Task: inverse folding
């Protein structure tokens, strides 16, 4: 949903994502160390919390699939979902509306990472 092109600013990419994707509610981009690079959340504490949740989900998924790189996790919750995508250098974690089109949300998140210069396949 987000237009292609590399080198975009992280905040601008998130603004565009939230504007175009009706399924994304909150979103945060974190670097490999878990530090928040950009966020569209209710505040800094919520951004850090969401980044931590994303990293924890990726870590737990890696336990389930040892020896395989985990690039995406999707968890359905009663009031929406959490979708996390990693590209090796960054992760992007989003909360969604209830019953999202998970593949479309993941595609949009991957596109944001690509625009930032990530190498998500």
Result:
């Amino acid at each position: 949903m987000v237009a292609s092109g590399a080198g975009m600013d992280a905040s601008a990419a998130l603004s565009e994502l939230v504007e175009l994707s009706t399924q994304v509610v909150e979103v945060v981009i974190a670097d490999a160390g878990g530090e928040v690079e950009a966020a569209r959340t209710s505040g800094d504490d919520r951004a850090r919390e969401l980044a931590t949740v994303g990293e924890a989900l990726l870590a737990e998924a890696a336990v389930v699939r040892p020896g395989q790189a985990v690039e995406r996790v999707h968890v359905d919750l009663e009031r929406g979902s959490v979708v996390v995508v990693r590209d090796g250098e960054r992760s992007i974690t989003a909360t969604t509306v209830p019953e999202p089109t998970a593949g479309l949300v993941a595609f949009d998140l991957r596109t944001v990472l690509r625009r930032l210069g990530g190498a998500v396949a």
